[in-house]
């Protein structure tokens, strides 16, 4: 039989594979996180009709005469280039910009995917559409994430209660007008929380004092600060202090906490409670212009009980819980994995990959570190398939298939002529 016929048959098979790959790419043109593939051909063994010879003193060298025996698929490579961005506005849709894969778990198997369309199940686990659980690190009750431990199932603890924190300190900052008349009062209010999370509005009254030789002695540029618990009628005095300003700043006062260790008795339902509340006044100034001094919340200002109402995602993969008391605290952090050779990953279906023999071991860490990309919430990475390129590839594959089929028909005609020589 003619070698050309068998070569053409291998060409048909190879171009059929190219058509299959192109068809799969086009079918997944709108698949979230899909990575397109390309077919690579190489020739097969060749039959040597005449060996080559080296030149010598009397004759020149000759090249070998070889006839190829067809083509085969050398490999099907995956293009891991970045896909286009589609904004969705869903808090549970995540997109990787750059290298890396989301880590998921199906049963006892760890898989990897670029498809960031997640949702929550009945117990709050973040899952893929096919039920794989998103992996990462959960935060401690105080919001600390330990990335040195193993990855676990990420869960959104809907309805989680954040315990109240009693107020231990607050601050008053801003300006008290240097041109204010004697007796001018500036008022502000801040909430003070007890151990049970009950809020007690505390008013602060700042009054410009007139200088006096005494007794008592009142220096120039002095202001009286008085605190009162307004949950009672009339308000319950909590004490106060006198500030003296020099060159616009507080003078003669220790740095840091200015009212330190004073114990104020604040009324609460069912009785009274005693709690030391320190007010930092070092940020107060007395310059020209209007008075805008006001009580400010600080890290020590305490908080009421909070219930988890929502969450958001930062660029490093930290899931931040949003609580009803206005606080934000880390719930957990997503894990991303990179591979030395992503092309060696094996496709596991459902837009997922598993580690292959030639992919290398997964390097798991946080977004934005170790060459891993950053994360965005409310967006998805779409397929990176280029339709114009795929349609061009279809034409090339079709023409290659037609040409190889033409070789077969031509070889058949030659064999027919050979058979008819007997007639």
TrEMBL record:
Residue span(s) of domain Flagellar basal body rod protein N-terminal: 7-35
Major subcellular site: other
InterPro entries: Falgellar_hook_FlgE_sf, Flag_bb_rod_N, Flagellar_FlgE/F/G, Flg_bb/hook_C_dom, FlgE/F/G-like, FlgE_D2, LlgE_F_G-like_D1
Domain Flagellar basal-body/hook protein C-terminal: 377-421
CC terms in the record's Gene Ontology section: bacterial-type flagellum basal body; bacterial-type flagellum hook; cytosol
GO biological process terms, semicolon-separated: bacterial-type flagellum-dependent swarming motility
SUPFAM superfamilies assigned to the protein according to its UniProt record, in alphabetical order: Flagellar hook protein flgE (SSF117143)
Ranges where the Flagellar hook protein FlgE/F/G-like D1 domain occurs: 95-158
Flagellar hook protein FlgE D2 domain ranges (all copies): 181-293
Keyword match rRNA-binding: no
Keywords: Bacterial flagellum, Cell projection, Cilium, Flagellum
Subcellular location: Bacterial flagellum basal body
Job of this protein: A flexible structure which links the flagellar filament to the drive apparatus in the basal body.
Protein name per its UniProtKB record: Flagellar hook protein FlgE
